Structure formats: structure tokens, C-alpha cells
Amino acid sequence: MIIIDCPYCGPRDHAEFTYVGDAARTRPAEDASQATWFDYVYLRDNPRGPHLEYWQHSSGCRAMVKVLRDTSSHRVLACGLPADQLEAEQLEAGHLEAGQ
Amino acid sequence: MSAQDRRLPQGGEVDRSTPMRFRFDDRDYQGLAGDTLASALLANDVRLVGRSFKYHRPRGIFSAGPEEPNALVELRTGARIEPNTRATTIELYDGLEAASQHRWPSLRWDVGEVNNLVSDFLPAGFYYKTFMGWPGWMFWEHFIRKAAGMGRGTLDPDPDSYDKMNAHCDVLVIGGGPAGLSAALVAGRSGARVILVEETDGFGGRLRGERETIDDKPARHWVASTLAELDGMGDVTLLRRTTAFGRYDGNVVAALERRADHLAEPPEHISRQRLWTIRARRIVLAAGGIERHIAFADNDRPGVMLAGAARTYLNRFAVQVGKIATVFANNDDGYRTALDLAAGGVEINAIVDPREHGGTWRQKAETAGIDVFAGAVVSRAHGRLGLVGVDVRDASGKNRFLASDLLAVSGGWNPNVHLTCHLGAKPVWDNALATFLPGDTGPDMRVAGSARGLAGLGTCITDGYAQARAALDDLGYSKSALPDVPVTDEPQEEPVQALWQVPGKGMRFVDYQDDVKVSDIALANREGYQSVEHLKRYTTLGMGTDQGKTANVIGLAVLAEERGLPIDKVGTTTFRPPYTPVTFGAFVGRETGLHYQPLRRSAMHDWHVANGATFVNAGHWLRPQYYLRDGESDVKADIDRAITREVTETRGGGGIVDVSTLGKIDLQGPDTAELLNRLYINGWKTLAVGKARYGLMLREDGHVWDDGTTSRLGENHYFMTTTTANAGPVMSHIEYALQVLWPDLDVKAVSVTEHWAAMAIAGPKSREALAAVLDDVDVSNDALPFMGVVECTLAGIPARVFRISFSGELAYEINVAADCGEAAWEHVMRTGAPLGILPYGTEAMGIMRIEKGHVAGPELDGRTTPADLGLGRMVSSKKPFLGAPMLTREGLTDTDRPSLVGLVPVDGKSRPRAGAVLIADPKAVPPVDKLGHVTSSAYLSPNLDHPIALGLLEGGMAREGETVWAAFPLRDEMIEVRVTGPVFLDPDGERMHG
Fold this sequence. Notes:
The complex is a heterodimer. By secondary structure, chain A is α+β, with helices and mostly antiparallel strands. Chain A is about 15% helix and about 35% strand.
């Protein structure tokens, strides 16, 4: 059980959230190659360590919360809005090592 | 009724003024308030309480706590029967009934004991080796399980209720012994929010079974004063009878509170148990230690007991578990047992101690006149149904027999590391203490007292203070003076000397509950099962309901000896949640029966109930399936008649259906048309105000996801409907699109499914009905054309009317605020009565949409493309939309893909079943090439007078006129069907456009 810090509502139990998916990928341009689209739709990295993902506060404010979660410890490292650069901020603050 | 022969006239925590009757195996006994079932049985000199799992060996009570491997009983009767319950943790109540397990016909005369005589043929892995061949394990398993016996459960519904609790705290202290109490005291005094959980009915932990003093007074005074102070603190929650059984991510601890298990049945309105989910910032684990035994020949005889348990029964329950006792211990704690038992009137034969040299404790024993056999071991126990004596082997190898009815064994103490393992930390071997200590639990959990291998009361109290202080420092609580360290009376202890097994012939048990012996471990090692994990699975060591609390460390040590390696080179032990068994009821809580999931009813539900509706579950919704009239009952003939009536009269006159369950989303903002353009495959920029349009959505992978109509209510105001099933997912999808994909789009979306009650009037008379229902609204074809939308009132109720059709008839959908739903529906029924408007349900609706070839859930199965469904022309080539890039993939544009067709049985009466596989040759031998499948089926089209179906078929409409076969092998059905167009009725749509 993890606690997710919703930018609007504050720290809430993950039971209030619905896992949406990988937040590291970006939607390709409409005219991108089939290979690029295939990669976006089907292929996911499965990293051991920090992982960016979206959790929707579905039983709360409905916000898509970007979460940086360590898949090996299940620890939530940072939470923010979709536009936030969580990994870069964590790197800058020294909470994350480069290459992790 | 037996007397309590073994009960002392005074002392202990039992209440002699409150006797309690109980029954064990059809005999009546008496115990006292404050007893456990185990102490009450021992007070009545009941030594034989169960049979072992595999060899059916007679077994007695072995411990005084949750680690009990032997004394597992069936507790209670009827719907409350609970198998495999530990007699050592059951609080006695008046009228308790319990029965022994694993025996037939009786505990003393058990046929299964023959297994004991042939035990040489039943080594580890016997069942696998013997029964894996012909005719296979599946055949034998039934008989073997029956012989093994696991206690009986019940198939009756649980009569009790269970609750769930959520709690947050700064410091969670697990264990109410000396270390836990002192930790809670420091945390409480600092002002932190504290929860203290204690497994038993009272606080004090081991102190409840000891004669120790604190500040020169009995220890219970210290416990009472500490408790009184904690009780007075507002932010301290004390939970008795509560077991913290699991630790999970995010420093969450799950705990089971037994509110009524100490009573015959729960008082009215009190749940039996509560499952606590405790989110703690810091945990102090003060779970104490569990004593271990020593493997010598026949060490499972009733009367062989852990030394600390014998002491507990004497000191806490005032029960002498033996008259003449021998103590076998490799550590000084055994001396404490001997001295306490002697003080309690038990004759002590001797202390058998494998250690040559002793210290203060040995002097104390000798001063008290107790013989100490130094350098000696107990090599065998005698007495099949109860201990009569033991063989003691001295250093020179000579054996002597000591008549005894109690052997108190102590092989040392294991820190209770169970909860430290749950997040993956591995216990670490400590050679000096000859035990496993907690591994790295991280900063969120600190371990205090004997749970981390500390010995001595004063030391444990001090450690409780220190660990709590460290946790508070982490949390930033200001430093305050630590409580004084109380004065305790503790002689210096000499170190333990590891002793795991005593060589000798006979069964030397390591794991009582699973009947695992030293020889089984040796055999496993010889056969190559040298890893601890293999050993456990091959021998079942530690796999019982006690999770090997007394057995795991000995088993590991014996394996190490067999392999000639130090213990830390062989492996470690681990534990998984739950610490002790938890009933499923606690996890279920109140979420059972109708409360299993939310139930959604439309605003018109009561009307449907009052008018003969039979309901069907559609997700969480209840929807009318059909309406029975007076004189009709829920039998097939009447149901068919009702459904046929609803279809016929709707197509012939007019019908009304509740469509409130459709998903509804209100969209506003200047970019809404652009959003719709990107979500749907068709174009939306040309939709005029006051018009509706059908739309189809794809998933990003190009497959059809959902459909529905969206109407333009104003310049920047749209109203979307989705299928009932996808109401939630489509809403989330739009939110994802607006927040993540295209945050630049200026659109606000809100789900209004619950806000609007919706009903559809269909049929040739629907226009006439609508005109009568609405307040002065021109509903002519010119004023309200097909796909037109008008906002108006209905008996004064604001309404939106959409001219859209699912049935293929001239039809209108009316939406009103949910609060007005019932009134509006009743108004329509009243006003429409002269026109013969009747309500219809989902069955009639389904038949009518199949007659029209309209796709629904069975066709939108996540594997179809717009072209597969005959909707290829809707795909816009002028704009990008979600799913477009992947829709052009080779596999999705293949013209041989199965596509939508109509299917009619050649014999005019057989009904092809939804899910039937379409094949070319009914006589072909499987595997058969599949041409497609039947997606939707109507038992009868009242308008065509024969069954009809929709299907997805390779080649699709190119096969029109051909016949194929609908095979449903599970029911041995093979029906020849002719391929037709998917629109069976009014293909030009004259009815709905009229």
C-alpha cells in the first residue's frame, strides 16, 4: 500500500487511485512511422528502480498524477502534475543517481 | 464434571470466583475465568489433546502461545465451527465446545496410528515417490487427504459480521511486553500519536508468566502503572486481543482485532473481528521471543513441553503441568523454570544441562537443593499417551531412567523476527547467541527487546525506551527525559550452548505439526535437497499453520550439521504474512452479499418493480429485462410471450425503455469540436447546434472501443453518450486526453451519468405520444427531424429530447433531471396509455437492435475494426484521430478479416447460440478451421417469425446466400445457417426517418 501525494488533495492512500500507465512515453506525431507507433502502443520498459507512471485520482479530484515510483522498493519518490519533470528535479536535488 | 486436580489453591491471573464449564471431546470439564483452553485442559490433567498429521502420534500441549504446533482443535460447532485453532490462544468462556482432530474413531484409539508402526516406509517424499505413477496423484490425493485430516470446516454461511478499520499513527508499537510498554510510554510522553497492539487479552507479555520483580515489587505493578499512564494519554490507542499479522509497503501494518472470540458468540451489533489497516510513520517491533526445543528420541510424547510454557502455566494460570519434572536446558533460562516449578510445589528430578560449567543460576539451583546433571542430555522420552519418564545420558555415555510426568525443554530462545521478514529482509545468524537476529528492516521499523536477541528484563525495558526515542528523533519530536530505568533482580546469565539434536534411535521430531524428523532432513540432504528452500518443500518443514515457529531454526541447524557447514553458510529462515492464521471473514468485512459491490438503480426503478419487471445485472446497474403481466410467471413460455409482446407492440404502436444507464458526459469549451474530432473516427466540425451525431471511438491500437451519440446543445456545449459498460473508462480516457495528451485544448468534461434520467419512446405512435407528453412543442418532422435535438419542458419538468433510434423505429430519447425521472416516466405512461404505449426491457431492445443489425457490446469486442462492422465509410480521411495511425496496419486492413453478416437458421427454427463457431463442414474432424463466430442471437424475431443472429464471418457479405454451420460443441449443437445482410428489417430506414 502506497501513499500518493496528489497535487490538489494532498497525500492519499493508493486505494483512491487507478493506475493508468507508463508516463515516460510520449505520443508520437500522427505521421510518425508505423514502427514508432508500434513502439508507443505496445512496448513498455520494465525497469528495476525509478519508474514514471500515471495514477488517476479516480475517487478524488480525477487528476492524472505523475508518480515516480521505485519498482524495487515500491517507494514513491515524487509526485506531480503531468507537465512536471519529476526525474530531472530528483536528479538535480541529488535524490536520484544519473543512469538510474 | 472433573475437578481441576492440577490447579493450585492460590496465585496466577485466574479468577477462582468465576468457574466456567467447557466440553472437550464429549467430556465436560470446568475451568476458570482467565484460562485459555490449554490451561483449563492442563488444570484438569488432560494431557493428550491431538494426533499428529502424518503418523497419528499422540500429542499434548507443547507451548503456551501462538507458536503451538500440536494442540490444534476444532472450536465451536455448527456454522461457527473453526478447525485448526490453537488451544493455547483460545480464551476460555462458559459453554465452550472443542474437539480434537486427526483421529478416528477416538483420540485414545486411533486407527491411523498404524502409520506410526509403518513409519519406516513413510519417509520424506514418500507420497510423491509412491503415488506419482499409475494411476496418478490425482487419483490418490483424495484418499491421502482424507487420512491426513485437516479438521472440518463448514459450508454454512458465517453468522458473524466483520469490520474494517483504518488508522494512522506516528509510532506503532507491536507487542505489549516490557519492551513494548516502555517504548509506548516514551512515545506517548513525547506527544506522538501512538498505537500499541497486544496479541493477548492483557498487557505484560512474558511478565504475565514470570515471578520477577520490578522496583522490588511484583512486575505486574509496573505493568499496571505504565498502562494507567498510557490509558490517560489522549493520543495513545491501546488495542488488546489484536495481532499485527503482516507488514506491507508504505509502512502499513495489518492487524486482526478479536472483539468477541473470548465469548460464546458476539453480542448484538458487535462485529466478531476487525481488520485494522494501520499506516505508521515508524514501527517499534517488540514481539518478544519464541523458545525452541531439542530433537531427541520420542520428544513428542505428551508431557514434553517448552520450559517457558511450563513456567507460564504455573505462574499465570496456577496450574502444575506435572508432579515430577525433569528440566532439559542448554541455557540459564531453564534454571528459572526449575526454580519456579520447585517454588510452585513441583518435585524437580534434575536439571539436565549439556554445558559442563555453570554460573550464578546453577548455584541458585544447587542452593535450592536441585540436582544438576552437567554435561548430560535427555536421550529419550517414554510413555505413549503421556510421559512416564526420560532417559538421561551423562557425559560418559551412561544412561539412567528418571521417572517424570513433565519434561520441560529449552533449546534457547529465538527472537520473534516474523514481521521483520515481510518486506524481504533476511534474518542474520548470530553465532554467539546461536540464533537468527532481525535483518535490515530499514529506518521505518525498529526492533526492541528480546525480539532482537536481548536478554534480561532491565535491558529490554531500557531498549524499549531507546528504540522509541530513536524513532521519535527521526520524526522530529523534541527530546524529553527518558523514564527512569527500574530496578530488576536478575542474576548474571551464562551463554547458551547450541544443541539441536541428541543422537539416538527413534523418532526425533524437528517440526511437530508436519511430522518432520531429523532423519527426514538427513534423507533430503542425501537425495540432494540441500538448499533450505528445497528442504522445506521436500519435507514440508515449517509449512504448517504455525509456519515452523518452533521448528525452522532447528531444521536449518540440523541441515547444517548434515552438510558439515556453519549455519550461516546453509541459508536463512524467512516468514511471510500472516503471522498467525486470519479468517477470510476479516478480509471480506462487510463486502458480502448485496454489499459485495455497489448496486445502481435508475430513478425509475421503483416503477419497474411495481410493474412486473424482472431485472438483469448490467455492470453495477439493475435493468428491467422484461415485464410480466398479471397471470404470468417467471417461466420460459411466459417470458417468451412477454418479450414477443414488447417487440410486437413497440413495432406496431409504441414502447418505452429506460436508458438511464448509458454513460453521459457534459463537454464545454471552445475546443470541444476539436476534441471530438480527435476522439471519434468521424468528423464533428460540421455538426450544427441542435443536432446529434453517431460516433465511433477507437483504441490507440486501431480497434473499435465504444460508440454513442453526441449532441451539440450550444455553441461550445456538447453532450456525449457512451455505452453503459464504458461510461467510466471513456470518462477517464477523456480526462487523460485533456490532462496528458492535449493539455492545450480548452475543454471541460464532467460525467453526468447520474444527473440525468433517460427514457426512449419508440414506435410508429411515438411522435403522437411525444406531442401529448411535451408542453407545447412542435415535434413534426420538419421541426424535429431525425437526429434533431430540442430543449423543452414535460409537465413543467425541463427536458432534453433527442430524435435518435436504437430500435430502428421512429424514436425519441427524453432526458430529465434524475430527481424528476420517476415523475416524468409516470407522466409519459399516463399520457401514452390511450395510445397503448407499453414498457419494454433489455431483451426486447436486444432483439430490435439485432433485427436492425446495430452493433453493440458483443460486436465491439475489442478485436474489430470499423470496416469489420460495416462502418468503414465512417472513417474520416480528412483529420487525425485516436487510433488512426494503427488502423492502417496490414493485419487490420486485410479484406479477408471476418466482418459483420446476418445469419438465419436454414430450418427456420433452430437458434444459433452466441459464441457458436462458424465452420464450413459439420462433419470435419477437429481441429477445424474457424470462419468466424456468432456474436448476437435473438431467439425469435417476432417480425420475421424465426430466429436471427449476427456474426463475424470471413469473407463477410461476399458469402451472402451461402450456408455455413454454427457449431457449439459444449452442447453438441450444429446448426446450418444462411448468410444474409445484417439488417433484417426496414433496410432503408424508412421507419426511423419517417
